[in-house]
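Subject: complex prediction, re-run

Hi both,

The earlier run crashed halfway through, so I resubmitted it with identical inputs.
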Amino acid sequence: MNTNILQVKDPILSIENLSVAYDKNVAVKDVSVGIKKNNVTAIMGPSGCGKSTLLRALNRLHELYENIHTTGTVTLNGEDIFKMSPIKLRRKTGMVFQRPNPFPTMSIYDNVIAGYKLNGISQKKQERDEIVERSLRDVALWDEVKDSLTKKGTFLSGGQQQRLCIARALAFNPEIILLDEPTSALDPVATSKIEDLLITLKETYTIIMVTHNMSQAARISDYSLFMYLGELVEYGKTKNMFTNPQDRRTEEYLTGKFG
Amino acid sequence: MKVVSEIDNINSRIRKDRVFLGLVVLFSVITVSPIILIISKLIEKGYKQLSFGFLIEKTPDTMQAMAAIANNELIPGGIVNGILGTVLMVVLASVFAIPVGIITGVYLYENQEKWMANLTRSISDILQGVPSIVLGLISYLWVVKHVTNGFSAMAGSFALGIMMLPMIVRSTEETLKMIPQTLKEAGLALGIPYWRVLFGILIPTGFSGLMTGILLAVSRVIGETAPLMLTALGSSVINTNIAKPTSAIPLLIWEFYNDPNMVDMIWSSSLLLMIIVLAFNLTAKQVAANRK
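This time it finished cleanly. Structure:
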């Protein structure tokens, strides 16, 4: 048992011996980790260490590509995600991507409600309005866009678009939100808005975020994973990891010796 | 001394530049002049015949035309049987080619490297190069002889539809490839089933690209004559039965060419066909420009 990896009691998401390979190149090696509910967990590491690959395994997005093979078990609230239908799993796990990607043909309103509309879930207009308003308020975008809900989502600024994408992911009331470097394409002001947002969102949701920005991980995450060459090197409270890293590689990364 | 030689050098460079500029302009003019000459000739020779009646009346018979020429009048009648025949066959061909072409294009996009997809792509490319008369022959053998037991609009549509297919397949695949992968992933990450992602997100996002491909395919087949000679044959009456012989604008042009009394009708029919094809082409260009 690797002592540098924190054992979490009653994790919402429990990853056991997860490996992901692109053809024969193993990108994530035998990762076992428990994610704590209502916290922000950051996945850190240098480029190419398998952070995004790990994240994308959690909503089975890898299944779109035939050359990617996943092994191991992941349970969400005790339920094996690989035995669920991917559709059910993905409704429980919202995902936000590196670059804001609102659906370009849809209005702001339709972008938020897209998950319901495109799933063919019929609702009264009032219900839809409520979901849209709640989701947009959750991401602090409501006041900025409430008068232009019929405008295309792509008319918004980059930071607003990214918050719209978070709102889209929240509309289904997921249990977990997966964010893949959500601020790497944004300016510092937009970044800080998203960071503040994530801190408030963790009261309702469990957040797992990939970042290669160490100071971002330090600012907003409660727990951190440090990955290197596909291996999970260290996992613990962010505070402890930044002040007292256990592994030499973590220390070298955090002090800027590589990365 | 060095400075002087550099100035000489610059002058000769300027001269060369002018010569090449002149050549470029010359070749550009050579490229665009055929279309200008064609259109001006068609207008010059065809505008007199082109009237509202030309669009809503049937083709005259050769005796009527001869009488009109003898009296120094315009040939009466129009080409409505050809116009409606062309519309009928192109619509029918589109009904067949658009769904099949788009679904095949989606298949190629989703399975880039699979051998089946590679094979399909190559065959589709080969199909694009098959001479249209050969497609007409095939349609004659399959549809005329065995399905409609005679020349028919359906046989003509079949040949035209096959011609449209590879263009729609390719434009669909290329359009989908240009849509960022993350849009598809974002849709699927919302728990939306694939077919709804395709019809709700990918196709609307690439709509103008698909539309451009379809319009170009239509404008390509609208002027096809050879395959129709072997399949739709032609008709002097308005036909709406897809199992019966049908006229088409290009077929009429060919018929007019073969009838010395009807020669004047060639120009107006060609002008109309040219206007229709140009309209499709310009619309396609406009749609393509709008997406940028």
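Chain B touches chain A at residues 180, 182-193, 196-197, 200-201, 204-205, 207 (CB under 8 Å).

- K.
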